[in-house]
Amino acid sequence: MDAVSAPPPAAVEIVALTKRYAAGAQPAVDQIDLRIASGSYCCLLGPSGCGKSTTLRMVAGHESVSAGDILLDNRNITNLPAAARGTAMMFQSFALFPHLSALDNVAFSLKMKSVAKAERHRRAKNLLERVAMGHLAERKPAELSGGQQQRVALARALITEPRVLLLDEPLSALDPFLRIQMRAELRRWQKELGLTFIHVTHSQEEAMALADTMVVMNHGLIEQVGSPHQVYNHPASEFVARFMGGHNVFALNDGLVAVRNDHMRIAPSTGEAGDMGVPAHVTDIEYQGTYVLIGLRLTGERPERSGVSVLLSEQTFLSRPYEVGDSVRLSWSETDARALGPGATRPGEPGNGSAASRPAPMAALAAMAA
Ligand code: ADP
Ligand code: MG
């Protein structure tokens, strides 16, 4: 970014945000800082229990904050009630009321605010039309397809005119086919409405497909923030490389590196003295259609770091097939190796990559082919 162009305005700014459910316990969310650009699609991504939902619920006002601040368009909303924040929440599998029509589902929160019936129906009808559901306003959720239900849930969340839409695993209860359809639709609506979306998911694939900005969390800390491309191509730590998948981690003399499994080179072992590369043997072969995924174990590496994989195009594999049990040599171009940092640490804690905790490098890597 050049010096004159200012960063886009932060719709949501999180400052040293902390949640401690029990005194003395490790915080569920530990002093995280985050700026989410206005009108962007932000995904909070991480394994189960890493603090994603807690973070989202604190932004929504459904969970109290132990320390820190939440700002929406530069207004401190940390202690405001949920309804006064300018945020709205869309829940897992949409959580529509089964006994209410689409129209009454959408109008529900206005009813709670004692808006007169004619007015709330008018506004709900407008929103349903906006999401191309006006003609089905009288249907009950069970009479709607998954996609139509999602649009009703979206209209219901939008009726309070939020600036920020919060989505907690909205797609995780859907079958895989519908999930892929629905995420394309969420992405389209976000762009069309121009709202800021904060979407919690444990699925790397979902976050990659949706996000302008991915926030990778682990143990209540943020490991990395970046575009899907940045995070996938430059994982900041071993945790991110492994969590994103598709990467191998190697311990070299000067630290850990990650190499994408589609950037690996594989060659049969010649058994001769000049054999270059990291020795390994094939443990499984998975045919995936366009690609073939070869699972391997590195020779002489600790069990937790010995599993690696190589992704070959179907054509490459067929031109030189491997079999389970084959001895091979692995290598990569130096430009494809990403140095990994120590990862997020709590104040006062040594990093994962500190000299004391770093594993002994693999001797064989001295012979790595360039
Ligand atoms: P995620 O959504 O990433 O799976 P959560 O934010 O739900 O994670 O949980 C983060 C941590 O906080 C977990 O260790 C979880 O057990 C704990 N936790 C979540 N909700 C509560 C609660 N209401 N009371 C106590 N601990 C909780
Ligand atoms: Mg959760």
TrEMBL record:
Residues 336-360 are annotated as: Disordered. Residues 12-244 form the ABC transporter domain. Keywords: ATP-binding, Cell membrane, Membrane, Nucleotide-binding, Transport. Gene3D superfamilies: P-loop containing nucleotide triphosphate hydrolases. The keyword Transferase does not apply. GO terms for molecular function: ATP binding. This is ABC transporter ATP-binding protein. It comes from Variovorax ureilyticus.
